[in-house]
Amino acid sequence: EPEVTQTPSHQVTQMGQEVILRCVPISNHLYFYWYRQILGQKVEFLVSFYNNEISEKSEIFDDQFSVERPDGSNFTLKIRSTKLEDSAMYFCASQTRTGLETQYFGPGTRLLVL
Amino acid sequence: AQTVTQSQPEMSVQEAETVTLSCTYDTSENNYYLFWYKQPPSRQMILVIRQEAYKQQNATENRFSVNFQKAAKSFSLKISDSQLGDTAMYFCASRETSGSRLTFGEGTQLTVNP
User: Fold this and answer.
1) Nearest by CB: A100 against B33, B44, B99
2) Which residue of A37, A52, A57, B10 pairs with A89 in a disulfide if CB–CB is 3.0 to 4.6 A?
């Protein structure tokens, strides 16, 4: 069964460094998402992406964050200058089309900012 | 804006017994989608069941079923014949038809005891 994959599974970085989290969505999916989950807290929406542009973003998704689909298969989340509070689990999700269609989640990348 | 509330941080059930997890939500829209996701210790988010708000019939998926009460804005999950593998964090989530983001509740940690 096709699945969403994410790399790396874990990343440790120093405060102020840039990180890029990578996702490979399911191949025939058209909608892509990033969510994050700070330890012990709710899963929070960051951004959705469709037709090579951001379709919706949350108040968390400020200028430090950017997303890109560079080559038609990968979907990346870049954090330009990481802060301690960016430490979280980051989930990528994809969906074939809108409506009731399920968002399929990847296994997540655990980011730790020191 | 949507909100989702799960008032039970933890629950436990004996293997083979039935358990119900509660979820309430709030939305300004008349049509929307509701979901239950499971997050086992691996942290991957797995869809359990989904429901369209305009459908009165409660969704069922094998041992999982929901009790959807639209007027009360309640969407509880019933797990029958609980199995050890059901031990996980369960998240209730909603999505308005006008948007793409999932809004999650706080989660309920379910433990199935042998």
Assistant:
1) B33
2) A37
pLDDT at A99: 65
Q: Is the peptide bond before A8 cis (omega within 30 degrees of 0)?
A: yes
Q: Where are the alpha helices (DSSP H) in A29-101?
A: none
**Span A77-98, mean pLDDT?**
93
Tell me whether residues B104 and A44 touch, CB distance under 8 A.
yes
Q: Does A54 touch chain B (CB under 8 A)?
A: no
pLDDT for A100 beyond 70: no
Q: Rounded to 10 degrees, what is the CA torsion of A59, A62, A66, A67?
A: 0
Please spell the DSSP secondary structure of B41-86, one letter per residue: TT---EEEEEEETT--SPPEETTEEEEEETTTTEEEEEE-S--GGG
Would you say B98 and B1 are in contact if contact means Cβ atoms under 8 Å apart?
no
Summary mean pLDDT of chain A: 92
Q: Which of B101, B103, B108, B109 to mutate to test the interface with A (most CBs of A within 10 A)?
A: B101
Return the percent helix, strand and coil in chain A, to nearest 5: 5, 50, 45
Residue A98 has pLDDT above 80, yes or no: no
Q: Which residues contact B64 (CB under 8 A, 6 or more apart)?
A: B36, B48, B49, B77, B78, B79, B80
Whether residue B102 and residue A100 make contact (CB cut-off 8 A), yes or no, is no
Query: Which chain A residues contact residue B36 at CB under 8 A?
Result: none
